[in-house]
Amino acid sequence: MDTTIPLARLGTLMGLVATLALAGCGGDDSVASTAPAPSPAAAPTPAPTPAPAPTPAPTPAPTPAPTPAPTPAPAPTPAPTPAPAPAPAPAPAPTPDTAFATPADASSTAEGGAVASYAYAATATDQTAGSVVYASGAETFSATLASVQSYAGAALRVHAPGNAAGGTATPLDASGFSQLRIHLASTTDGTLTIKLQPSPVAPDGCTPTAQAVVSATLGEFVIDLNDTSFAVPSYCAAPATTLRQMLAGLYAIDVINDATGAGSHDVVLGSVSLVP
Amino acid sequence: MRRFITALALAASFTSAAHATNFFDGFDGSGGPNGASWQTSNWRNGAPFGCTFAYSEVWLGGNGNLTLNVNSSVPSAVKCAEVRTWQSFTYGKFVVRMQPGTIAGADSSFFLYTGTAGTSSHNEIDIEFINGGRTLHTNVWTADRQNWQQYAVSTGWRTIGFEWRPTYVRWFNVSDSGVETEFRRVYTTISAPMQLMLNHWVGDNSAGAKNFVGQYNGGGGAAYYDWVKVSD
Question: What does residue A11 show for φ and ψ, rounded to 5 degrees?
């Protein structure tokens, strides 16, 4: 019997959590100098091969001694029926989400925010971007690469409520929210990147970023608004502001398909809301 | 002669370290998992695990699923579940259809493992659902050096897997129509045979546990596994 694995798993986790605490949403010991070496597992104590405990023989229940019939007690005077207790106050309903962006058409949300798109590639002339298409409550944007790129992206950007195209930026204070609820899909690729954008937006992508594993069917993702889920990409300098500070001025949310292979790559984005 | 062949077959099935055989378990039937294929854990790992692996929390539900349960009926003695193949594998595609658990502060997983953590013998390839089943943690440990990445995921049933080859590991989703979509690839060299493991456990709310699987606030529930498949 292998007795090393349980304790070895412990060591795995100890090393892992140490790295998680320091490194955000991804890590590679071979390149992340800040990631500590995993804590070695304690010397394993061999766990004995566990034999199922024998089922004990049932203990027979003792035969009860006959109990003399009790003397009937006088019937008690019925107590007055208490006044009905007031109905308990209903549990407070969960605080509903705050809508951030509900697609209304190809260029705007129900909350008055603009919907935009952008695309980029190492060889821009090898990329052909389409138009944003609205259908069934979701926006779709795709771009086609004529050749494999070293980097590329096709992205949708939904702005905070009230931020119509061409207007003055009025970021939303989202610092009091704990989670982002977002509906995503891609019919062409398996992952999408989500970026929280301040005003002005971070053109280099150095802003809190999460990744989602998606399918071709629109799915709901509830992502914690914390440094573990939304880390600044490793290629960026250490951020000057905390995530909470950045959330206090949330201007837009980008969803990017950064696949680099030749062919079409799309992003499908449904409603976005903030969870208290 | 027949007895000799049987002995050979048994030895091969329990100690095989060759290239992946075509292994499949649809978890049909009821009672415990097939003991010829799976070893069920029945011990406590210690911190940061906040529960004790127990035979009682592993069963076939009669509906074609393996249940790995977290039982919190005694809050001070939470029980949880783990199985691993007797057989070890070298390379192949490892795919599971599962419904991860949704307990905050828990981890439901599908992974390969060998060796002792903290030593160069430690190799591991992970799919772990943490944070209430809303975060997918992928990791590969090569000679005790890890390379991990986390993703937001939707909850519910999914088919997911990884492919382990001599020079790389890649993770992929499988759609309902059977189409694989790769979402991560790491170039690494692991050759040591590894056992396939599934578990469902809660953290002990130590700082390390909370940083990984999140805060456990009590409560129980199950992770379900419809099938696992290993192929060359």
Answer: -60, -40
Half-sphere exposure of B208 (CA within 13 A, CB side): 17
Q: Judge: B124–A12 Cβ closer than 8 Å, yes or no.
A: yes
A13 touches chain B (CB under 8 A): yes
**pTM of the predicted protein model:** 0.78
A contacts of B145 (beta carbons < 8 Å): 29-30
Share of chain A above pLDDT 90, in %: 61
Per-window interface: B 92-151 vs A, CB < 8 A? 113, 115-119, 122, 124, 131, 134-136, 139, 141, 144-151
pLDDT tens-digit map of B177-187: 899 999 999 99
Cβ atoms of A252 and A197 within 8 Å: the answer is yes
- Averaged confidence pLDDT in chain B: 92
The interface pTM score, or ipTM, of the predicted complex is 0.84
Residue B6 touches partner A, C-beta closer than 8 Å: no
